[in-house]
Amino acid sequence: MKKVKASETLVQTLKNWGIDHVYGLPGDSIDTVVDALRKEQEDIEFIHVRHEEVAALSAAAYAKLTGKIGVALSIGGPGAIHLLNGMYDAKMDHVPMLVLVGQVTTDVLNTGFFQEVNLPAVFEDVAVYNKQIDNPETLADVVDEAIRTAYKEKGVAVLTISNDIPAQAIKASLEAETVKFEQENPKLNEANIQEAVALIDKAEKPVILAGLGTKHAGPELIAFAEKAKIPIIHSLPAKTIIPDDHPNALGNLGKIGTKPAYEAMQETDLLLMFGNDYPYSDYLPKKAACVQIDIDPAKISKRYQATVGLVGDAAEIISNLTAKIAPVEERKFLQACQENMQEWWKWLEEDMTKTTDPIAPEVVMANIQKIADKDAVFSIDVGTATVWSTRYLHLTPENDFIVSAWLGTMGCGLPGAIAAKKAFPDRQAIAIVGDGGFSMVMQDFATAVGLNMPMIVVVLNNQQLSFIKYEQQSAGELNYAIDLPDINYAKFAESCGGIGFRVEKMADLESAFENAKLATKPVIIDVSVDSAAAPLPGKIVMDEALGYTKFEIQSVLEDHRFAKMPPLKTILRRFL
Ligand SMILES: Cc1ncc(C[n+]2csc(CCOP(=O)(O)OP(=O)(O)O)c2C)c(N)n1
Ligand SMILES: [Mg+2]
Protein backbone atom coordinates (compact mmCIF):
# COMPACT_ATOMS: atom_id res chain seq x y z
CA MET A 1 0.00 0.00 0.00
CA LYS A 2 1.34 3.38 -0.92
CA LYS A 3 1.99 6.19 1.53
CA VAL A 4 -0.41 9.12 1.46
CA LYS A 5 -1.07 12.05 3.73
CA ALA A 6 -3.75 11.48 6.37
CA SER A 7 -5.45 14.64 5.12
CA GLU A 8 -5.95 12.96 1.74
CA THR A 9 -7.79 10.09 3.40
CA LEU A 10 -10.02 12.63 5.17
CA VAL A 11 -10.90 14.33 1.90
CA GLN A 12 -11.45 10.99 0.15
CA THR A 13 -13.90 10.01 2.88
CA LEU A 14 -15.83 13.23 2.36
CA LYS A 15 -15.98 12.47 -1.36
CA ASN A 16 -17.14 8.93 -0.69
CA TRP A 17 -20.11 10.37 1.18
CA GLY A 18 -20.95 12.57 -1.79
CA ILE A 19 -19.93 15.78 -0.01
CA ASP A 20 -19.28 18.34 -2.73
CA HIS A 21 -18.75 21.55 -0.77
CA VAL A 22 -17.57 22.87 2.56
CA TYR A 23 -18.38 26.27 4.11
CA GLY A 24 -15.48 27.75 5.99
CA LEU A 25 -12.65 30.11 6.59
CA PRO A 26 -9.00 28.95 6.68
CA GLY A 27 -6.30 29.64 9.23
CA ASP A 28 -3.24 28.20 10.90
CA SER A 29 -4.66 25.35 12.94
CA ILE A 30 -6.70 23.91 10.04
CA ASP A 31 -4.27 24.72 7.20
CA THR A 32 -3.27 21.13 6.45
CA VAL A 33 -6.91 20.12 5.89
CA VAL A 34 -7.50 23.22 3.76
CA ASP A 35 -4.45 22.32 1.68
CA ALA A 36 -5.85 18.87 1.01
CA LEU A 37 -9.18 20.44 0.01
CA ARG A 38 -7.32 22.83 -2.33
CA LYS A 39 -5.99 19.83 -4.23
CA GLU A 40 -9.49 18.39 -4.62
CA GLN A 41 -11.27 21.65 -5.44
CA GLU A 42 -12.70 20.17 -8.63
CA ASP A 43 -14.78 17.80 -6.51
CA ILE A 44 -15.25 19.72 -3.27
CA GLU A 45 -15.91 23.43 -3.48
CA PHE A 46 -14.58 25.56 -0.65
CA ILE A 47 -17.18 28.22 0.05
CA HIS A 48 -15.06 30.85 1.65
CA VAL A 49 -17.24 32.95 3.94
CA ARG A 50 -16.27 36.02 5.94
CA HIS A 51 -17.58 34.89 9.31
CA GLU A 52 -17.61 31.33 10.60
CA GLU A 53 -21.13 31.77 11.97
CA VAL A 54 -22.29 32.10 8.38
CA ALA A 55 -20.43 28.91 7.50
CA ALA A 56 -22.25 26.95 10.17
CA LEU A 57 -25.66 28.54 9.51
CA SER A 58 -25.27 27.82 5.78
CA ALA A 59 -24.27 24.23 6.47
CA ALA A 60 -27.37 23.82 8.67
CA ALA A 61 -29.60 25.41 6.03
CA TYR A 62 -28.14 23.17 3.30
CA ALA A 63 -29.06 20.13 5.40
CA LYS A 64 -32.58 21.48 6.01
CA LEU A 65 -33.06 21.96 2.27
CA THR A 66 -31.58 18.73 0.99
CA GLY A 67 -31.49 16.23 3.85
CA LYS A 68 -27.77 15.85 3.03
CA ILE A 69 -25.08 16.57 5.58
CA GLY A 70 -23.81 20.17 5.70
CA VAL A 71 -20.11 20.69 6.37
CA ALA A 72 -18.48 23.64 8.12
CA LEU A 73 -14.78 24.18 8.72
CA SER A 74 -12.78 26.58 10.84
CA ILE A 75 -9.62 27.11 12.82
CA GLY A 76 -9.73 26.15 16.50
CA GLY A 77 -10.09 28.82 19.20
CA PRO A 78 -11.97 31.91 17.96
CA GLY A 79 -13.16 30.45 14.64
CA ALA A 80 -14.51 27.35 16.31
CA ILE A 81 -16.39 29.50 18.82
CA HIS A 82 -17.90 31.52 15.97
CA LEU A 83 -19.37 28.31 14.55
CA LEU A 84 -21.42 27.53 17.63
CA ASN A 85 -24.59 29.35 16.66
CA GLY A 86 -25.06 27.44 13.40
CA MET A 87 -24.16 24.21 15.14
CA TYR A 88 -26.97 24.75 17.64
CA ASP A 89 -29.32 25.59 14.78
CA ALA A 90 -28.55 22.19 13.24
CA LYS A 91 -28.85 20.41 16.58
CA MET A 92 -32.17 21.98 17.46
CA ASP A 93 -33.71 21.57 14.01
CA HIS A 94 -32.45 17.98 13.88
CA VAL A 95 -30.34 18.03 10.74
CA PRO A 96 -26.98 16.38 10.09
CA MET A 97 -23.84 18.51 10.17
CA LEU A 98 -20.13 17.75 10.12
CA VAL A 99 -17.77 20.28 11.67
CA LEU A 100 -14.03 20.14 11.11
CA VAL A 101 -12.10 22.41 13.42
CA GLY A 102 -8.38 22.84 13.81
CA GLN A 103 -6.38 22.67 17.01
CA VAL A 104 -2.86 23.60 18.09
CA THR A 105 -0.23 21.02 17.16
CA THR A 106 0.19 17.97 19.38
CA ASP A 107 3.65 19.07 20.64
CA VAL A 108 2.06 22.03 22.45
CA LEU A 109 -1.40 20.62 23.11
CA ASN A 110 -2.57 21.05 26.71
CA THR A 111 0.02 23.75 27.45
CA GLY A 112 -2.37 26.68 27.24
CA PHE A 113 -0.89 27.65 23.89
CA PHE A 114 -1.94 30.60 21.69
CA GLN A 115 -5.56 30.05 20.59
CA GLU A 116 -5.77 26.76 22.47
CA VAL A 117 -9.31 26.23 23.66
CA ASN A 118 -10.60 23.01 25.15
CA LEU A 119 -12.82 22.36 22.14
CA PRO A 120 -14.19 18.94 23.07
CA ALA A 121 -15.45 20.60 26.27
CA VAL A 122 -16.91 23.55 24.33
CA PHE A 123 -18.78 21.24 21.96
CA GLU A 124 -19.95 18.72 24.52
CA ASP A 125 -23.51 19.99 24.68
CA VAL A 126 -24.05 20.64 20.98
CA ALA A 127 -22.49 17.52 19.46
CA VAL A 128 -23.81 14.01 18.94
CA TYR A 129 -20.24 12.96 18.09
CA ASN A 130 -17.29 14.86 19.50
CA LYS A 131 -13.77 13.52 19.04
CA GLN A 132 -10.30 14.92 19.22
CA ILE A 133 -8.13 13.27 16.55
CA ASP A 134 -4.83 11.94 17.86
CA ASN A 135 -3.91 9.29 15.34
CA PRO A 136 -3.39 9.95 11.61
CA GLU A 137 -3.85 6.24 10.81
CA THR A 138 -7.48 6.20 11.95
CA LEU A 139 -8.46 9.67 10.76
CA ALA A 140 -10.52 8.46 7.80
CA ASP A 141 -12.36 5.87 9.90
CA VAL A 142 -13.25 8.50 12.48
CA VAL A 143 -14.50 10.88 9.78
CA ASP A 144 -16.64 8.08 8.40
CA GLU A 145 -18.11 7.26 11.79
CA ALA A 146 -18.70 10.96 12.48
CA ILE A 147 -20.73 11.38 9.30
CA ARG A 148 -22.68 8.19 9.92
CA THR A 149 -23.50 9.30 13.45
CA ALA A 150 -24.58 12.78 12.30
CA TYR A 151 -27.05 11.16 9.90
CA LYS A 152 -28.26 8.60 12.41
CA GLU A 153 -28.72 11.06 15.27
CA LYS A 154 -29.77 13.99 13.04
CA GLY A 155 -27.22 16.21 14.74
CA VAL A 156 -23.76 17.68 14.73
CA ALA A 157 -20.57 15.62 14.53
CA VAL A 158 -17.41 17.50 15.44
CA LEU A 159 -13.82 16.56 14.80
CA THR A 160 -11.12 18.59 16.49
CA ILE A 161 -7.91 18.06 14.53
CA SER A 162 -4.43 19.17 15.58
CA ASN A 163 -2.86 20.67 12.49
CA ASP A 164 0.16 18.32 12.43
CA ILE A 165 -1.94 15.13 12.28
CA PRO A 166 -3.39 15.46 8.74
CA ALA A 167 0.09 16.26 7.39
CA GLN A 168 1.50 12.90 8.46
CA ALA A 169 2.15 10.15 5.93
CA ILE A 170 0.33 6.87 6.47
CA LYS A 171 -0.18 3.68 4.52
CA ALA A 172 -3.67 3.80 3.04
CA SER A 173 -5.52 3.40 -0.21
CA LEU A 174 -7.47 6.30 -1.64
CA GLU A 175 -9.98 4.24 -3.52
CA ALA A 176 -13.29 5.89 -4.23
CA GLU A 177 -16.37 4.13 -2.95
CA THR A 178 -19.96 5.19 -2.63
CA VAL A 179 -21.22 5.29 0.91
CA LYS A 180 -24.84 5.88 1.80
CA PHE A 181 -26.72 6.02 5.02
CA GLU A 182 -29.72 3.80 5.25
CA GLN A 183 -31.96 3.59 8.23
CA GLU A 184 -34.53 0.91 8.79
CA ASN A 185 -37.87 2.21 9.91
CA PRO A 186 -39.53 0.57 12.90
CA LYS A 187 -42.18 -2.03 11.99
CA LEU A 188 -45.75 -0.87 12.28
CA ASN A 189 -47.74 -2.03 15.27
CA GLU A 190 -51.01 -3.31 13.80
CA ALA A 191 -52.96 -3.21 17.08
CA ASN A 192 -52.06 0.46 17.56
CA ILE A 193 -53.03 1.24 13.97
CA GLN A 194 -56.44 -0.37 14.55
CA GLU A 195 -56.91 1.65 17.72
CA ALA A 196 -56.01 4.85 15.87
CA VAL A 197 -58.42 4.03 13.05
CA ALA A 198 -61.25 3.53 15.58
CA LEU A 199 -60.50 6.93 17.17
CA ILE A 200 -60.41 8.66 13.78
CA ASP A 201 -63.66 7.03 12.62
CA LYS A 202 -65.41 8.04 15.83
CA ALA A 203 -64.17 11.65 16.02
CA GLU A 204 -66.45 14.52 15.06
CA LYS A 205 -63.96 17.34 15.06
CA PRO A 206 -60.55 15.88 14.32
CA VAL A 207 -57.62 18.17 13.51
CA ILE A 208 -54.19 17.35 12.11
CA LEU A 209 -51.12 19.14 13.41
CA ALA A 210 -48.39 18.33 10.88
CA GLY A 211 -44.69 18.97 11.48
CA LEU A 212 -41.44 18.47 9.61
CA GLY A 213 -41.63 14.74 10.27
CA THR A 214 -44.19 14.71 7.46
CA LYS A 215 -41.97 16.68 5.07
CA HIS A 216 -41.59 13.70 2.75
CA ALA A 217 -45.22 12.65 3.28
CA GLY A 218 -47.16 15.59 1.84
CA PRO A 219 -49.17 13.61 -0.75
CA GLU A 220 -49.99 10.90 1.83
CA LEU A 221 -51.08 13.56 4.31
CA ILE A 222 -53.35 15.24 1.78
CA ALA A 223 -54.91 11.93 0.70
CA PHE A 224 -55.64 11.11 4.35
CA ALA A 225 -57.09 14.53 5.13
CA GLU A 226 -59.24 14.55 2.01
CA LYS A 227 -60.64 11.08 2.61
CA ALA A 228 -61.67 11.85 6.19
CA LYS A 229 -62.42 15.57 5.63
CA ILE A 230 -59.98 16.73 8.30
CA PRO A 231 -58.44 20.21 8.53
CA ILE A 232 -54.65 20.43 8.52
CA ILE A 233 -52.67 22.82 10.69
CA HIS A 234 -48.90 22.91 10.34
CA SER A 235 -46.00 23.87 12.52
CA LEU A 236 -44.17 26.97 11.27
CA PRO A 237 -41.21 25.25 9.54
CA ALA A 238 -43.60 22.78 7.88
CA LYS A 239 -45.24 25.57 5.85
CA THR A 240 -44.65 24.06 2.41
CA ILE A 241 -45.78 20.52 3.18
CA ILE A 242 -49.23 21.22 1.80
CA PRO A 243 -50.26 24.19 -0.38
CA ASP A 244 -51.38 27.18 1.70
CA ASP A 245 -54.41 27.34 -0.60
CA HIS A 246 -55.43 23.72 -0.13
CA PRO A 247 -59.07 23.64 1.05
CA ASN A 248 -58.16 21.71 4.20
CA ALA A 249 -55.29 24.03 5.18
CA LEU A 250 -55.72 26.25 8.24
CA GLY A 251 -52.19 27.66 8.34
CA ASN A 252 -49.87 27.44 11.29
CA LEU A 253 -50.41 27.37 15.02
CA GLY A 254 -49.03 29.56 17.76
CA LYS A 255 -48.11 33.08 18.66
CA ILE A 256 -47.61 33.90 15.00
CA GLY A 257 -50.20 31.47 13.72
CA THR A 258 -53.70 31.93 12.32
CA LYS A 259 -56.90 32.50 14.24
CA PRO A 260 -58.70 29.61 12.47
CA ALA A 261 -55.90 27.23 13.51
CA TYR A 262 -56.10 28.36 17.12
CA GLU A 263 -59.85 28.03 17.21
CA ALA A 264 -59.92 24.63 15.53
CA MET A 265 -57.48 23.43 18.19
CA GLN A 266 -59.73 24.70 20.96
CA GLU A 267 -62.74 22.91 19.46
CA THR A 268 -61.24 19.59 18.44
CA ASP A 269 -62.09 16.25 20.00
CA LEU A 270 -59.18 14.40 18.36
CA LEU A 271 -55.69 15.83 17.90
CA LEU A 272 -53.67 14.06 15.21
CA MET A 273 -50.06 15.00 15.99
CA PHE A 274 -48.16 13.92 12.91
CA GLY A 275 -44.37 14.28 13.00
CA ASN A 276 -43.97 17.24 15.28
CA ASP A 277 -42.69 18.16 18.70
CA TYR A 278 -44.88 21.22 19.13
CA PRO A 279 -43.84 22.91 22.39
CA TYR A 280 -46.44 25.62 23.07
CA SER A 281 -49.06 23.85 25.16
CA ASP A 282 -51.21 27.00 25.43
CA TYR A 283 -52.16 26.48 21.81
CA LEU A 284 -52.98 22.79 22.07
CA PRO A 285 -56.46 21.53 22.99
CA LYS A 286 -57.42 21.69 26.67
CA LYS A 287 -58.61 18.11 26.51
CA ALA A 288 -58.86 15.84 23.49
CA ALA A 289 -57.97 12.32 22.45
CA CYS A 290 -54.70 12.20 20.56
CA VAL A 291 -53.13 10.00 17.92
CA GLN A 292 -49.44 10.75 17.60
CA ILE A 293 -47.05 9.63 14.87
CA ASP A 294 -43.30 9.96 15.38
CA ILE A 295 -40.22 8.14 14.17
CA ASP A 296 -38.75 8.58 17.65
CA PRO A 297 -40.50 6.63 20.42
CA ALA A 298 -39.15 9.12 22.98
CA LYS A 299 -41.35 11.83 21.47
CA ILE A 300 -44.64 10.00 22.06
CA SER A 301 -46.64 11.83 24.76
CA LYS A 302 -43.74 14.24 25.32
CA ARG A 303 -45.86 17.35 24.68
CA TYR A 304 -49.41 16.03 24.80
CA GLN A 305 -50.78 12.85 26.27
CA ALA A 306 -51.19 10.46 23.33
CA THR A 307 -54.15 8.08 23.46
CA VAL A 308 -52.34 6.05 20.80
CA GLY A 309 -48.71 6.41 19.77
CA LEU A 310 -47.63 5.19 16.33
CA VAL A 311 -43.88 4.86 15.99
CA GLY A 312 -42.43 4.81 12.50
CA ASP A 313 -42.19 6.57 9.19
CA ALA A 314 -44.96 9.14 8.74
CA ALA A 315 -45.55 8.42 5.02
CA GLU A 316 -45.94 4.71 5.67
CA ILE A 317 -48.19 5.10 8.70
CA ILE A 318 -50.40 7.78 7.16
CA SER A 319 -51.03 5.78 3.99
CA ASN A 320 -51.76 2.74 6.13
CA LEU A 321 -54.32 4.75 8.10
CA THR A 322 -55.84 6.15 4.89
CA ALA A 323 -56.47 2.66 3.59
CA LYS A 324 -58.28 1.66 6.79
CA ILE A 325 -60.35 4.67 7.81
CA ALA A 326 -63.93 5.09 6.65
CA PRO A 327 -64.44 7.78 4.01
CA VAL A 328 -66.37 10.81 5.22
CA GLU A 329 -68.82 12.40 2.79
CA GLU A 330 -69.34 15.64 4.61
CA ARG A 331 -67.88 17.00 7.80
CA LYS A 332 -69.52 20.10 9.22
CA PHE A 333 -66.52 20.88 11.36
CA LEU A 334 -64.29 21.09 8.27
CA GLN A 335 -66.82 23.29 6.50
CA ALA A 336 -66.90 25.68 9.44
CA CYS A 337 -63.10 25.76 9.58
CA GLN A 338 -63.00 26.46 5.85
CA GLU A 339 -65.37 29.36 6.20
CA ASN A 340 -63.30 30.69 9.07
CA MET A 341 -60.19 30.40 6.92
CA GLN A 342 -61.78 32.24 4.00
CA GLU A 343 -62.54 35.12 6.36
CA TRP A 344 -58.95 35.02 7.54
CA TRP A 345 -57.55 35.25 3.99
CA LYS A 346 -59.99 38.04 3.19
CA TRP A 347 -58.78 39.90 6.24
CA LEU A 348 -55.15 39.42 5.20
CA GLU A 349 -55.92 40.51 1.63
CA GLU A 350 -57.06 43.88 2.97
CA ASP A 351 -53.62 44.39 4.54
CA MET A 352 -51.84 43.39 1.36
CA THR A 353 -53.51 46.00 -0.75
CA LYS A 354 -52.79 49.08 1.37
CA THR A 355 -51.46 51.85 -0.83
CA THR A 356 -50.48 54.43 1.76
CA ASP A 357 -47.05 55.46 2.96
CA PRO A 358 -45.24 54.44 5.11
CA ILE A 359 -45.03 51.11 3.35
CA ALA A 360 -46.81 48.28 5.14
CA PRO A 361 -44.73 45.08 5.43
CA GLU A 362 -47.79 43.15 4.27
CA VAL A 363 -47.63 44.99 0.94
CA VAL A 364 -43.98 44.02 0.63
CA MET A 365 -45.10 40.40 0.96
CA ALA A 366 -47.61 40.92 -1.85
CA ASN A 367 -44.81 42.23 -4.06
CA ILE A 368 -42.54 39.33 -3.16
CA GLN A 369 -45.35 36.96 -4.06
CA LYS A 370 -45.81 38.66 -7.40
CA ILE A 371 -42.20 38.22 -8.53
CA ALA A 372 -41.56 34.84 -6.90
CA ASP A 373 -41.03 31.86 -9.18
CA LYS A 374 -43.32 28.90 -8.63
CA ASP A 375 -40.47 26.95 -7.06
CA ALA A 376 -38.69 29.81 -5.26
CA VAL A 377 -36.70 28.96 -2.14
CA PHE A 378 -37.43 31.25 0.80
CA SER A 379 -34.98 31.77 3.61
CA ILE A 380 -36.54 33.67 6.46
CA ASP A 381 -34.81 35.53 9.27
CA VAL A 382 -36.03 35.84 12.84
CA GLY A 383 -38.07 38.92 13.72
CA THR A 384 -41.27 40.32 12.31
CA ALA A 385 -40.05 39.02 8.92
CA THR A 386 -40.94 35.57 10.24
CA VAL A 387 -44.50 36.66 10.94
CA TRP A 388 -45.12 38.48 7.67
CA SER A 389 -43.60 35.70 5.55
CA THR A 390 -45.33 32.84 7.31
CA ARG A 391 -48.67 34.54 7.36
CA TYR A 392 -48.91 36.34 4.03
CA LEU A 393 -47.03 34.22 1.49
CA HIS A 394 -49.10 31.64 -0.33
CA LEU A 395 -46.69 28.78 -1.00
CA THR A 396 -46.90 25.22 -2.26
CA PRO A 397 -44.80 22.06 -1.90
CA GLU A 398 -42.83 23.22 -4.96
CA ASN A 399 -41.36 25.93 -2.77
CA ASP A 400 -38.95 25.55 0.11
CA PHE A 401 -39.26 27.68 3.22
CA ILE A 402 -36.50 27.55 5.81
CA VAL A 403 -36.22 29.24 9.17
CA SER A 404 -34.24 28.78 12.34
CA ALA A 405 -37.20 27.07 13.92
CA TRP A 406 -36.03 25.98 17.35
CA LEU A 407 -32.91 28.07 18.02
CA GLY A 408 -34.66 31.06 16.47
CA THR A 409 -31.41 32.79 15.74
CA MET A 410 -31.31 36.17 14.04
CA GLY A 411 -28.94 36.21 11.08
CA CYS A 412 -30.07 32.94 9.50
CA GLY A 413 -31.72 34.51 6.42
CA LEU A 414 -28.69 35.32 4.26
CA PRO A 415 -26.78 32.09 5.08
CA GLY A 416 -29.93 30.17 4.14
CA ALA A 417 -30.05 31.90 0.75
CA ILE A 418 -26.37 31.08 0.14
CA ALA A 419 -27.12 27.43 0.95
CA ALA A 420 -30.19 27.53 -1.31
CA LYS A 421 -28.08 28.64 -4.29
CA LYS A 422 -25.63 25.85 -3.52
CA ALA A 423 -28.38 23.25 -3.18
CA PHE A 424 -30.49 24.42 -6.12
CA PRO A 425 -28.44 26.74 -8.36
CA ASP A 426 -31.26 27.07 -10.89
CA ARG A 427 -33.99 28.05 -8.45
CA GLN A 428 -34.74 31.58 -7.35
CA ALA A 429 -33.55 32.28 -3.78
CA ILE A 430 -35.29 34.96 -1.74
CA ALA A 431 -34.15 35.96 1.75
CA ILE A 432 -36.62 37.97 3.83
CA VAL A 433 -34.82 39.63 6.70
CA GLY A 434 -35.09 42.44 9.24
CA ASP A 435 -32.50 45.19 9.48
CA GLY A 436 -31.34 43.80 12.85
CA GLY A 437 -30.96 40.21 11.67
CA PHE A 438 -29.35 41.15 8.38
CA SER A 439 -26.79 43.47 9.95
CA MET A 440 -25.54 40.54 12.06
CA VAL A 441 -24.28 38.73 8.94
CA MET A 442 -24.36 41.26 6.12
CA GLN A 443 -20.66 41.03 5.37
CA ASP A 444 -21.39 37.73 3.67
CA PHE A 445 -23.53 39.37 1.03
CA ALA A 446 -20.09 39.99 -0.49
CA THR A 447 -19.58 36.22 -0.45
CA ALA A 448 -22.76 35.73 -2.49
CA VAL A 449 -21.54 38.36 -4.95
CA GLY A 450 -18.10 36.75 -5.17
CA LEU A 451 -19.63 33.34 -5.81
CA ASN A 452 -21.95 34.78 -8.43
CA MET A 453 -25.08 33.58 -6.63
CA PRO A 454 -28.02 35.64 -7.87
CA MET A 455 -30.48 36.07 -5.02
CA ILE A 456 -32.91 38.65 -3.73
CA VAL A 457 -32.44 39.83 -0.16
CA VAL A 458 -35.44 41.83 1.02
CA VAL A 459 -34.51 43.93 4.05
CA LEU A 460 -37.56 45.07 6.03
CA ASN A 461 -35.88 48.20 7.31
CA ASN A 462 -37.82 49.60 10.25
CA GLN A 463 -34.76 50.92 12.09
CA GLN A 464 -35.62 48.95 15.16
CA LEU A 465 -35.86 45.53 16.70
CA SER A 466 -39.58 45.56 16.08
CA PHE A 467 -40.35 42.07 17.30
CA ILE A 468 -38.80 42.92 20.65
CA LYS A 469 -40.68 46.20 20.76
CA TYR A 470 -43.94 44.26 20.74
CA GLU A 471 -42.58 41.62 23.07
CA GLN A 472 -41.73 44.34 25.60
CA GLN A 473 -45.17 45.86 25.18
CA SER A 474 -47.01 42.58 25.51
CA ALA A 475 -45.11 41.96 28.75
CA GLY A 476 -46.22 45.38 29.99
CA GLU A 477 -42.65 46.76 29.87
CA LEU A 478 -41.53 50.09 28.52
CA ASN A 479 -39.61 50.00 25.27
CA TYR A 480 -35.85 50.07 25.72
CA ALA A 481 -32.74 49.39 23.58
CA ILE A 482 -34.65 48.63 20.42
CA ASP A 483 -33.59 51.44 18.05
CA LEU A 484 -31.27 50.73 15.15
CA PRO A 485 -29.63 53.67 13.40
CA ASP A 486 -30.34 53.48 9.69
CA ILE A 487 -27.94 51.91 7.21
CA ASN A 488 -28.45 52.31 3.48
CA TYR A 489 -28.41 48.62 2.57
CA ALA A 490 -28.85 49.41 -1.12
CA LYS A 491 -25.60 51.38 -1.16
CA PHE A 492 -24.00 48.59 0.82
CA ALA A 493 -25.12 46.10 -1.85
CA GLU A 494 -23.48 48.19 -4.52
CA SER A 495 -20.27 48.59 -2.55
CA CYS A 496 -20.09 44.77 -2.44
CA GLY A 497 -20.47 44.56 -6.22
CA GLY A 498 -24.15 43.61 -6.10
CA ILE A 499 -27.28 45.57 -6.98
CA GLY A 500 -29.23 47.69 -4.52
CA PHE A 501 -32.67 49.28 -4.50
CA ARG A 502 -33.63 51.65 -1.73
CA VAL A 503 -37.40 51.98 -1.50
CA GLU A 504 -38.82 54.69 0.72
CA LYS A 505 -42.16 55.28 -1.00
CA MET A 506 -44.95 53.01 -2.14
CA ALA A 507 -44.60 54.47 -5.62
CA ASP A 508 -41.14 52.88 -6.02
CA LEU A 509 -41.94 49.49 -4.55
CA GLU A 510 -43.27 47.56 -7.50
CA SER A 511 -40.59 48.61 -9.97
CA ALA A 512 -37.83 47.70 -7.51
CA PHE A 513 -39.18 44.17 -7.31
CA GLU A 514 -39.67 43.90 -11.06
CA ASN A 515 -36.08 44.99 -11.67
CA ALA A 516 -34.75 42.71 -8.97
CA LYS A 517 -36.40 39.73 -10.65
CA LEU A 518 -34.45 40.41 -13.84
CA ALA A 519 -31.08 40.82 -12.12
CA THR A 520 -28.33 38.29 -12.69
CA LYS A 521 -26.38 39.37 -9.61
CA PRO A 522 -27.27 39.33 -5.91
CA VAL A 523 -29.70 42.11 -5.08
CA ILE A 524 -30.71 43.84 -1.88
CA ILE A 525 -34.09 45.55 -1.81
CA ASP A 526 -33.90 47.85 1.18
CA VAL A 527 -37.50 48.77 2.00
CA SER A 528 -38.28 51.39 4.64
CA VAL A 529 -41.30 49.78 6.24
CA ASP A 530 -43.81 51.14 8.70
CA SER A 531 -42.21 50.84 12.12
CA ALA A 532 -45.67 50.79 13.69
CA ALA A 533 -46.79 47.64 11.85
CA ALA A 534 -47.72 45.26 14.65
CA PRO A 535 -47.24 41.53 14.04
CA LEU A 536 -50.29 40.63 16.06
CA PRO A 537 -50.69 37.11 17.29
CA GLY A 538 -53.33 35.08 15.42
CA LYS A 539 -54.93 34.79 18.82
CA ILE A 540 -53.78 36.84 21.75
CA VAL A 541 -53.50 34.44 24.65
CA MET A 542 -54.56 35.70 28.05
CA ASP A 543 -51.25 36.72 29.57
CA GLU A 544 -50.23 38.63 26.45
CA ALA A 545 -53.58 40.42 26.37
CA LEU A 546 -53.08 41.45 29.98
CA GLY A 547 -49.61 42.74 29.13
CA TYR A 548 -50.88 44.85 26.25
CA THR A 549 -53.54 46.33 28.50
CA LYS A 550 -50.96 47.12 31.17
CA PHE A 551 -48.96 49.00 28.57
CA GLU A 552 -52.12 50.90 27.81
CA ILE A 553 -51.93 50.55 24.10
CA GLN A 554 -55.57 49.79 23.83
CA SER A 555 -55.35 50.63 20.16
CA VAL A 556 -53.48 47.41 19.54
CA LEU A 557 -56.39 45.49 20.91
CA GLU A 558 -58.97 47.76 19.38
CA ASP A 559 -57.45 48.09 15.94
CA HIS A 560 -56.67 44.51 15.30
CA ARG A 561 -60.01 43.96 13.72
CA PHE A 562 -60.41 40.38 14.91
CA ALA A 563 -63.81 41.51 16.09
CA LYS A 564 -64.85 41.63 12.45
CA MET A 565 -64.18 37.92 12.16
CA PRO A 566 -66.84 35.78 13.81
CA PRO A 567 -65.35 33.15 16.10
CA LEU A 568 -65.39 29.55 14.92
CA LYS A 569 -67.96 28.71 17.60
CA THR A 570 -70.44 31.09 15.93
CA ILE A 571 -69.76 29.70 12.48
CA LEU A 572 -70.12 26.16 13.78
CA ARG A 573 -73.58 26.89 15.15
CA ARG A 574 -74.74 27.58 11.61
CA PHE A 575 -73.44 24.24 10.40
CA LEU A 576 -74.56 22.05 13.29
C1 LIG B 1 -28.99 36.04 17.82
C2 LIG B 1 -30.26 36.55 18.42
N1 LIG B 1 -30.23 37.60 19.25
C3 LIG B 1 -31.38 38.09 19.77
C4 LIG B 1 -32.58 37.52 19.46
C5 LIG B 1 -33.89 38.06 20.06
N2 LIG B 1 -34.67 38.68 18.99
C6 LIG B 1 -35.67 38.03 18.33
S1 LIG B 1 -36.36 38.93 17.14
C7 LIG B 1 -35.37 40.24 17.45
C8 LIG B 1 -35.50 41.52 16.67
C9 LIG B 1 -35.21 41.35 15.22
O1 LIG B 1 -35.01 42.61 14.68
P1 LIG B 1 -34.99 42.83 13.14
O2 LIG B 1 -34.12 41.83 12.49
O3 LIG B 1 -34.69 44.26 12.85
O4 LIG B 1 -36.46 42.46 12.71
P2 LIG B 1 -37.82 43.25 13.08
O5 LIG B 1 -38.43 42.50 14.21
O6 LIG B 1 -37.46 44.66 13.40
O7 LIG B 1 -38.64 43.17 11.85
C10 LIG B 1 -34.49 39.97 18.52
C11 LIG B 1 -33.50 40.92 19.08
C12 LIG B 1 -32.55 36.39 18.61
N3 LIG B 1 -33.66 35.73 18.29
N4 LIG B 1 -31.38 35.97 18.08
MG1 LIG C 1 -36.00 45.76 12.34
Automatic annotation (TrEMBL):
Catalytic activity, EC: 1.2.3.3
Alphabetic keyword roster: Oxidoreductase, Pyruvate, Thiamine pyrophosphate
Domain of life: Bacteria
PROSITE patterns named in the record: TPP_ENZYMES
The keyword Oxidoreductase appears for this protein: yes
Pfam entry (one): TPP_enzyme_N
Domain Thiamine pyrophosphate enzyme central: 193-321
InterPro entries: DHS-like_NAD/FAD-binding_dom, POXB-like, THDP-binding, Thiamin_PyroP_enz_cen_dom, Thiamin_PyroP_enz_TPP-bd_dom, TPP-bd_CS, TPP_enzyme_TPP-bd, TPP_POXB-like
Domain Thiamine pyrophosphate enzyme TPP-binding residues, every copy: 381-527
Gene Ontology molecular function: any one: pyruvate oxidase activity
Residue span(s) of domain Thiamine pyrophosphate enzyme N-terminal TPP-binding: 5-118
Enzyme class: oxidoreductase
Family to which this protein belongs: Belongs to the TPP enzyme family.
NCBIfam families associated with the record: PRK08611.1
Protein's name according to its UniProt entry: Pyruvate oxidase
UniProt source species: Listeria welshimeri
